[in-house]
Write a structure and sequence with these properties.
This protein is an alpha/beta fold and 454 residues long. It folds into three domains: 189 residues, 2-enoyl-CoA Hydratase, Chain A, domain 1 (Alpha-Beta Complex), CATH 3.90.226.10; 137 residues; 69 residues, Nucleic acid-binding proteins (OB fold (Dihydrolipoamide Acetyltransferase, E2P), Beta Barrel), CATH 2.40.50.140. Helix content is 50%, strand content 17%. The strands form three sheets. Strands 1, 2, 3, 4, 5, 8, 9 and 10 form an eight-stranded mixed β-sheet that branches. Strands 11-12-13-15-14 form a five-stranded mixed β-barrel. Strands 6-7 form a two-stranded antiparallel sheet. A hairpin with a 2-residue loop joins strand 14 and strand 15. Helix 2 runs parallel beside helix 3 and helix 5 runs antiparallel to helix 6. The chain is elongated.
Amino acid sequence: MKKRIKLLLFLLCALLLMPLAACSNSTSDTSINSEIHNAQKKVMIIPLTETVEKGLAAYMERNFARAEEESVDYIIIQMDTPGGRVDAAQEIKRIIYKTDIPTIALVEAKAISAGAYIALACDKIAMMPGSTIGDAEMRIGNERADEKYLSAWREEFAAMAEANGRDGEIAKAFVDRDIEIPDVVAKGQLLTLTANSAYALGMNDYLVDDLNALLLELDLAEAEIINGNMTMGEQITRVITNPTVAPILLTLGMICLVLEFFTPGIGIFAIAGITCLGLYFGGHMIAGMASWIALLLFLVGLVFCAVEIFVPGFGLFGILGLASIIGSIFLTTPDVATAVRYTAIVLTLAVVMTPILIKILSKRKFFDKLTVKEQLTTEKGYTARNQSLNERVGAEGIALTVLRPAGTMELADGTHLDVVTRGDFIEQGAQVKVIGIDGTWLIVREIKTDHREE
């Protein structure tokens, strides 16, 4: 009997305590849910400005990786770009598609061409007053791309738009001027939309005055802001890989190295040339646009060209050198059209500017001022290591080879001498005279003769 009474009392206590336990659990769950709800969200802001190029893609990838590490809730890309390289834009699209973090493009001024492509790749688009989006026709050089390229580009725009619930035909009209949409765009015109018209057509999701207004719209006014930053190396890479800057760097590097051939010693032209070429190839390798093979091929080309300079006639080494240099340019560019443009710019400027600079600098004696070397001249009290060189000063003969600037002359007694000019080209067979010694070099000039008509 007592055992039954104890059992009943235990059951009664258990029944009385159950509501308290439930209440305690409920309170605990409510507290946890409240903490989760009130946890501060994180937003990463990544500026995307100026030209879209491969250096920008590397910058975007690093910041997206950082966003993943920091477990941010949203990525907002602040956009103001006139467009740029197709391959760089496609790389950025790949980066955007790879992440599970919601992405929002905030168009502050313009998202044109490749910029429109990147904006459409984002989950949402917001536009500020006065901003525009569109005008994304693919061009190769200054010409409209043919249908082979245009078709793929057009359909890619449509696919991205449709994936986020936008009108694919309007996206196609950004790319193809032959598309006509009543009350939107006439045939023969590329479509560019303002913020208001894009909103009315469903091509953007938010009309906002600024970034703060967008954050407020997304209920992220209290969110922790993480700013995407660009390192110094990425900034330099962006400048170097710019389609305008890159061929100029390449041209300057080649011209400086050519000029160095006309100055004894290792001087300022060698330093400048190596610096320009180092920036060009280094920047493209950092951006993932080139490999060591491109740099090696370029250096091999320079060696072949250097050999050709000291060999009479335009022969095998010259051809191999030019082919290697052109091949290296092709390996650092995204397509054949860009490679052809770079090559044309480089060769044209090098061929035109090099002789002009040599003439100007030799006349103004810049070589002597800019060359980092010790002038071992007799006027300064030095004597040549080979004393017999002094005996050759004043000797005359003919240019046995083309002097450009180095080569061989032949004296009247048949003696052959290795000589160099002060930057002038002297044809084979011309009369020349030894006018001085520079280190171990015999310096010659052409003997000019006047031909007067009788």
